[in-house]
Specification:
Layout (H helix, E strand, L loop, with lengths): L1 E6 L8 H11 L5 E6 L2 E4 L3 H6 L7 E7 L3 H18 L4
Antiparallel strand pairs: 1-4, 2-3, 2-4
């Protein structure tokens, strides 16, 4: 199992477009992948679940992965979060 806290730095937070990108990437893997915010745990393969978290700029999310390809999934999702944060691509 892998767990890591992630702080959302995109100025618009995680809204529809980045949520879609995260869900699509998570859906490529067999592992169970969850995002947790303030005790609410959602399946990261669900765009609606990600949107429900309403992760605004500065929000702390916990990324939790467990399964046969968790290492590969972790690396891929970290790249997605990095892209969202660094480029502020969906503003």
């Amino acid at each position: 199992m892998i767990k890591e806290d992630i702080i959302i730095t995109n100025r618009l937070g995680i809204h529809a477009r980045p949520a879609s990108l995260l869900a699509q990437e998570a859906g490529k893997f067999k592992s169970d992948i969850f995002l947790i915010k303030e005790g609410i745990e959602i399946n990261a393969k669900s765009i609606m679940g990600i949107m429900m978290l309403a992760a605004e700029k500065g929000a702390k999310l916990t990324l939790s992965l467990s399964g046969v390809d968790e290492d590969e999934a972790y690396k891929a999702l970290k790249q997605v979060f990095k892209k969202i944060a660094e480029e502020d691509i969906y503003s």
